[in-house]
UniProtKB/TrEMBL annotation:
Transmembrane segments: none
Bias-annotated ranges (Basic and acidic residues): 179-191
Organism (species): Paracoccus homiensis
Superkingdom of origin: Bacteria
InterPro entries: Hexapep, Transf_Hexapept/Carb_Anhydrase, Trimer_LpxA-like_sf
Disordered: region residues: 171-191
Name of the protein in its database record: Phenylacetic acid degradation protein
Classification via Gene3D superfamilies: Hexapeptide repeat proteins
Pfam families, alphabetized: Hexapep
Length: 205
């Protein structure tokens, strides 16, 4: 990872988190236990604090920043999809922000809610808990079922497992000129519903 202090404030990464070598952390950034931060992500804590709480993920090319004096908070089990932008906002516990969505200053995504891909949440907007919100500007279209909330939790569990496996599996390489005969397929992490308890840093959702 590329880590930069800002005015003497140094990012913090828990030893059980995985931050990709091509991610960038600047200043007042706190990455909690069991988090996953993908390649190309930028967490820029030069104006306010950026916190990823235990078991959350911040996927490839996501950006977090804020206006001066404001913070970005992703609560426990938060799930930030590829290319999303968080600016001075809060993402509640076990909530998901879809791919390429934008969440603006002082907006709140409620606990267990899902924000659809490419949605835009305007400054100060409140998405209530257990909701599905889509569109630009984002609007709540319905409540989520218990099954859908569990589906989201399971998806986040896969990223928690990925954070455990990535240090051993990720390695620099040179491209091959052609596929090998009988090329092996990559095996995705298996979801383990007890992964957080076994790591000893979170309660079960």
């Amino acid at each position: 990872m590329s880590v930069w202090s800002w005015d003497g404030v140094v990012p913090v990464v828990d030893p059980t988190a995985f931050v990709h070598p091509d991610a960038v952390l600047i200043g007042d950034v706190i990455i909690g236990p069991g988090c996953y931060v993908g390649a190309g992500a930028v967490l820029r804590g030069d104006f306010g604090r950026i916190t990823l709480c235990a078991g959350s993920n911040f996927q490839e090319t996501c950006v977090a920043h804020a206006f001066p004096g404001k913070d970005v908070l992703v609560e426990e089990l938060g799930h930030i999809g590829h290319g999303a932008v968080l600016h001075g906002c809060r993402v509640g516990r076990n909530a998901m922000v879809g791919m390429n969505a934008v969440v603006m200053d002082e907006a709140v995504i409620g606990e267990n809610s899902i924000l659809g891909a490419a949605a835009f949440v305007k400054a100060g907007a409140q998405i209530p808990p257990d909701s599905m919100a889509v569109g630009s500007p984002a609007k709540v279209i319905r409540q989520l079922s218990a099954e859908e909330i569990d589906w989201k939790r399971r998806g986040t569990g896969v990223y928690q497992q990925l954070a455990i496996e990535a240090p051993a599996k990720l390695a620099p390489a040179q491209p091959l000129r052609a596929p090998e005969p009988d090329r092996r397929r990559v095996k995705a992490p298996e979801y383990d519903p007890l992964v957080l308890e076994r790591r000893g840093f979170s309660e079960r959702p």
